[in-house]
Design goal:
InterPro entries: Gfo/Idh/MocA-like_OxRdtase_N, Gfo/Idh/MocA_oxidrdct_glycsds, GFO_IDH_MocA-like_dom, NAD(P)-bd_dom_sf. The protein is an alpha/beta fold and 383 residues long. It is built from 12 helices and 17 strands. A hairpin with a 3-residue loop joins strand 13 and strand 14.
């Protein structure tokens, strides 16, 4: 099957890197800032500038992020011109700062890439989505698990009818980096991270992937949450209210039902996102800790599909960034996401680029999860 890997476009026909047309600023100097900076560079772009929580933090992160200039603050970066002018602002700050940074960047005429959760409330996510539409800028949210070729393959197979009518979906997203009471991070603080932590941080990825792959939309849900470590702190323990674990049961628009377990305290599970959908013809199962494979289940015969050129449909093969047999993973997903963001800025319409509309969708699901857990009953998800 003839395929055009995304790398052909990225690296030009002569094999050399393209002229950088993607001039980015990274706002936020933590782990995610590094992942974004690297993806910008792989896409042939420039990390023109870095903005941190202080001028000193921006300066000390500059080399690590491969940036050219440490800006004193956001205003200085947004006002820069000439060689320091920026096209796209990547927002990798704690969640409560997403809204003001995004609104300022859009007002300055920039395209934006904003980490998830897009905002700490659905109303803020709505305002950001409306502002992006009004500004006519590209506004993307890195729901990056969409960029695994085997996820695209699952989506194509659902679209081709290989699963039939979907009636059940289940899975989990499990991590262990917050297992101990001494494990700490800004995300556990609701003022900085928002009212839901495990769901907002990683449950949002799972729901996005479910809806992306299956085309089903969650319309009703019931959630229970548990804060396992009610006291937390690297040095001094303090009281924590955000959830470590959340279990969600849901119904989709077409009447399928399902459930997901989301946990940041599951020992041994580093980043285990498992999604399985079943329908009248078959099942598909994807595990992001084993992302080069996709399980296909049939009543008569099941098989483990691997990322071979003959297996992949054209839309999935577009995201194969390295030859089969050479595993690709998390950073590759980010690289592909930024390459598609660049394509969108250049006027293309990449299939499945996650935008602020998807961020808003996740914010509405998060709000429903918080409400259901607090009030102890099923709630409708705003569409
Ligand atoms: C931490 O839980 C984290 O870095 C998330 O914030 C990311 O979205 C996820 O992709 C990996 O884990």
């Amino acid at each position: 099957m003839a395929v055009t890997p995304i790398t052909d476009r990225e690296f030009g026909t002569d094999g050399g890197p393209p002229t950088p047309s993607y001039r980015a600023a990274i706002v936020g100097t933590g782990f995610m800032g590094r992942v974004h900076a690297r993806a910008v560079q792989v896409a042939g772009g420039r990390v023109v500038g870095v903005v941190g929580s202080s001028a000193e933090r921006a300066s000390s992160a500059l080399a690590d992020l491969g940036g050219e200039r440490a800006f004193a603050d956001l205003d200085e970066m947004l006002a820069a011109d000439g060689d320091d002018d920026v096209d796209v602002v990547h927002v990798c700050t704690p969640n409560h700062l997403h809204e003001p940074v995004v609104l300022a960047a859009l007002a300055a005429g920039k395209h934006v890439v904003c980490e998830k959760p897009l905002a700490t409330s659905a109303s803020a996510a709505e305002a950001m989505t409306a502002a992006a539409a009004e500004a006519g800028r590209v506004a993307a949210v890195p729901f990056v698990y969409r960029f695994h070729p085997m996820v695209r393959e699952a989506r194509e197979r659902v679209r081709a009818g290989e699963v039939g009518t979907i009636f059940v979906a289940h899975g989990s997203y499990l991590q262990d980096w917050l297992l101990h009471p001494t494990d700490d991070n800004w995300r556990v603080d609701p003022q900085l991270g928002g009212p839901t932590r495990a769901f907002g941080d990683i449950g949002s990825h799972w729901c996005d992937l479910l809806e992306f792959v299956s085309g089903e939309h969650i319309t009703r849900l019931s959630a229970q949450t548990s804060t396992v470590n009610k006291l937390r702190g690297a040095e001094t323990l303090r009281s924590v209210t955000t959830e470590d674990v959340v279990v969600v049961q849901f119904t989709t628009a077409s009447g399928a039902i399902g459930s997901v377990v989301v946990s940041q305290v599951s020992a041994g599970r580093k980043n285990r996102l498992l999604l399985e959908v079943s329908g009248s013809r078959g099942s598909l199962s994807f595990d992001q800790e084993n992302p080069e494979q996709l399980w296909w289940g049939g009543r008569e015969r099941s098989s483990q599909l691997v990322r071979d050129p003959e297996t992949l449909s054209t839309p999935a093969a577009r995201y194969a960034r390295v030859p089969a047999g050479h595993p690709q993973g998390y950073q590759d997903c980010f690289d592909a996401f930024v390459a598609d963001t660049q394509a969108a800025i250049d006027g293309e319409v990449p299939d499945g680029l996650p935008t602020f509309d998807d961020g808003l969708r996740a914010a509405r699901l998060a709000e429903a999860v918080v409400r259901s857990a607090r009030e102890g009953h099923w709630v409708e998800v705003e569409s």
